């Protein structure tokens, strides 16, 4: 059986000020063409179909078009909801849509009910684990500790129990939306940290033939059988070095056999350039970036006049301009944003306590801050679900 693994479409998302709907529509066409040309037997979409819980109408229309085109292929598609999706909205009409071969898995309680796809060497069971927000699903899975590892482990226990009742030789594919240990994040994923911990070990998924992961935007191999497809398009300049692609996965009678990357069409390359403005405007080695989307960081000690207009004369698709003047580390003019760069919410809060009080928080106070930050994030999730 041949499976096409993709995820993190983020329909409706822009790249800085650039509307990406046209590029997203081109990707859908590329996916459909790949299915036809490469004899694909099933498509899996591992979450974050939309970019937000209430997507714009144009994104909904594009998704509707994608559903029709996937259904017309005559092969099954399995999708799960991600942390950007509203599970309830994405799952509306799932029963009816399932009759057309598009299987939406958005209910955590149904994670052990597989989509069964037969082939010449036996059945393949596709189990969809939608994004599991620990605080919202811990009661469903009967876990006392609301953490990602605990709820995913409980969900996988249900999957393995169901798989054990299947005929011998049944192969298994998991769709999951999570941050698995060993994965490399970018700037464009929404933080899912709980209790200071976001990552779960890949061993949670032991006992299955392939794990199609979503959430991280770079295509990555955690283990041979546990992979991220990554997003098909870039959504931040931190993805400048990504190769945007999907995984074409082959299963044989014994399970996982091989995987091949299939490149996705990207409207423009990304480039991150850095230096003093006059130098950037003259350097011959930067000519290769003149048609790219550009993030420029200027290091001039004094901010130059009209820098964006001057940059766009050479790099017309400059989308982001930042300033990092070359000054001493103790210079009082170093920006607040620069001082916070690379620090997470927990670290910023702890630094604030130290600044105000003269001493940082102790372990008990760190736990209070961590719980408060988690509660805010969970409240945001609940509001999105309720919309």
TrEMBL record:
Keywords assigned: DNA recombination, DNA replication, Endonuclease, Exonuclease, Hydrolase, Nuclease
The Calcineurin-like phosphoesterase domain, residue ranges: 1-217
Ranges of residues in domain Nuclease SbcCD subunit D C-terminal: 267-355
Gene Ontology terms: biological process: DNA recombination; DNA replication
GO molecular function: 3'-5' exonuclease activity; endonuclease activity
UniProt KW Nuclease keyword: yes
Domain of life the protein comes from: Bacteria
Pfam family membership, one: SbcD_C
Gene3D superfamilies the record matches: 3.60.21.10
PANTHER family in UniProt: COMPONENT OF ATP-DEPENDENT DSDNA EXONUCLEASE, NUCLEASE SBCCD SUBUNIT D
Family (UniProt): Belongs to the SbcD family.
Its biological purpose: SbcCD cleaves DNA hairpin structures. These structures can inhibit DNA replication and are intermediates in certain DNA recombination reactions. The complex acts as a 3'->5' double strand exonuclease that can open hairpins. It also has a 5' single-strand endonuclease activity.
Oligomeric and partner information: Heterodimer of SbcC and SbcD.
NCBIfam families in the record: sbcd
Protein name per the record: Nuclease SbcCD subunit D
Source organism: Streptomyces antnestii
Protein's gene: sbcD
């Amino acid at each position: 059986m041949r499976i096409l693994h993709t995820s993190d479409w983020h329909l409706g998302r822009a790249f800085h000020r650039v509307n990406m709907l046209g590029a997203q529509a081109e990707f859908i066409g590329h996916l459909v063409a790949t299915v036809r040309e490469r004899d694909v037997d099933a498509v899996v979409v591992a979450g974050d179909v939309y970019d937000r819980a209430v997507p714009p109408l144009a994104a909904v229309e594009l998704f509707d078009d994608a559903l029709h085109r996937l259904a017309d292929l005559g092969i099954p598609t399995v999708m799960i909801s991600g942390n950007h999706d509203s599970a309830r909205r994405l799952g509306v009409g799932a029963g009816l849509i399932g009759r057309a071969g598009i299987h939406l898995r958005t209910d955590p309680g149904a994670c052990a009910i597989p989509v069964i796809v037969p082939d010449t060497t036996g059945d393949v069971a596709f189990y969809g684990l939608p994004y599991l927000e620990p605080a919202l699903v811990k009661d469903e899975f009967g876990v006392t500790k609301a953490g990602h590892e605990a709820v995913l482990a409980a969900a996988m226990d249900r999957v393995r129990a169901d798989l054990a009742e299947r005929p011998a030789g049944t192969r298994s594919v998991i769709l999951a939306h999570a941050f698995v240990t060993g994965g490399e994040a970018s700037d464009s994923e929404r933080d899912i940290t709980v209790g200071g911990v976001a990552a779960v070990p890949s061993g949670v998924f032991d006992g299955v033939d392939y794990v199609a992961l979503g959430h991280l935007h770079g295509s990555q191999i955690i283990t041979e059988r546990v992979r991220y497809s990554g997003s098909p398009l870039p959504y931040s300049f931190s993805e400048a070095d990504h190769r945007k692609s999907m995984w074409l996965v082959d299963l044989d009678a014994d399970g996982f056999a091989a995987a091949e990357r299939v490149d996705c069409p990207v409207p423009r390359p990304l480039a991150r350039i850095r230096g003093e403005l006059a130098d950037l405007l003259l350097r011959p080695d930067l000519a290769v970036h003149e048609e790219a989307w550009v993030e420029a960081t200027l290091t001039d000690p004094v901010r130059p006049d009209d820098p964006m207009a001057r940059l766009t004369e050479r790099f017309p698709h400059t989308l982001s301009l930042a300033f990092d003047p070359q000054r001493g580390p103790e210079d009082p003019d170093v920006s607040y944003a620069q001082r916070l760069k690379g620090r997470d919410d927990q670290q910023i809060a702890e630094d604030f306590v130290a600044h105000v009080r003269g001493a940082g928080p102790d372990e008990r106070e760190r736990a209070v801050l961590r719980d408060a930050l988690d509660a805010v994030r969970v409240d945001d999730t609940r509001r999105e679900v309720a919309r």
